[in-house]
Amino acid sequence: MSLDPFDRKIIAALQDDARMTVADIAERVSLSATPVSRRLKKLEEEGVIAGYAPLLDAKKLGFPLDAYLTINLQAHSDDIIDRFENAIQANPYVIACHAVTGEMDYLLHVTARDMEHLSQITLKTLVRIPGVRDVKSIVVLESIKKSRAVPIE
């Protein structure tokens, strides 16, 4: 889908505040509410806007520890990959999982209450998934930049 300047301004406005009303977006992008509403519907139907969700503060919800874990599998058979990915989907503490290139097979973003909790997640859950060969962890000391916004060029 090709985006014109108005579509880009609408998306930028929503990335700033997804709770913005159609009227507020219209004022910000210099269109009336009706075309903004039509454009929003089209962006949603095309999947450019995949949904709306609140940005939660994990620390205030009791999960101040962020960690990234790299995982290697013993083999790349369909059975091992399916078992691993199903286990990851079911784990609420894994907030993102990416199949990656390089030395490791997967990169996980994990949230935890503290180091002991991270240890439990790692040693009692992740390393016990059949087919996992090794797990390495990187604990986040401080987040310098954290954004879910996509560049709108």
Report on this model:
InterPro entries: ArsR-like_HTH, AsnC-type_HTH_dom, Dimeric_a/b-barrel, Tscrpt_reg_AsnC-like, Tscrpt_reg_AsnC/Lrp_C, WH-like_DNA-bd_sf, WH_DNA-bd_sf. This is AsnC family transcriptional regulator. GO terms for molecular function: sequence-specific DNA binding. It comes from Croceicoccus naphthovorans. This protein is an alpha+beta fold and 153 residues long. The protein folds into two domains: 5-45, Orthogonal Bundle (Arc Repressor Mutant, subunit A), CATH 1.10.10; 65-139, Alpha-Beta Plaits. Helix content is 37%, strand content 20%. Strands 2-3-1-4 form a four-stranded antiparallel sheet. Strand 2 (94-99) and strand 3 (106-112) form a beta hairpin. Helix 1 packs across helix 2 and helix 2 packs across helix 3. The two termini are 14 Å apart. The relative contact order is 0.16.
Write out key terms for the chains shown.
153 residues, alpha+beta, Alpha-Beta Plaits, 5 helices, 37% helix
Brief description of this entry?
This protein is α+β, with helices and mostly antiparallel strands and 153 residues long. 37% of the residues lie in helices and 20% in strands.
- The helix/strand series, from N terminus to C terminus, equals HHHEHEEHE
Number of strands: 4
Shape: elongated
How many individual domains?
A: 2
Question: Low-confidence runs (pLDDT<50, min 5 residues)?
Answer: none
Q: Average pLDDT, to the nearest integer?
A: 96
Main sheet: strand order: 2-3-1-4
- Tell me the Rg in angstroms: 20 Å
Terminus-to-terminus distance: 14 Å
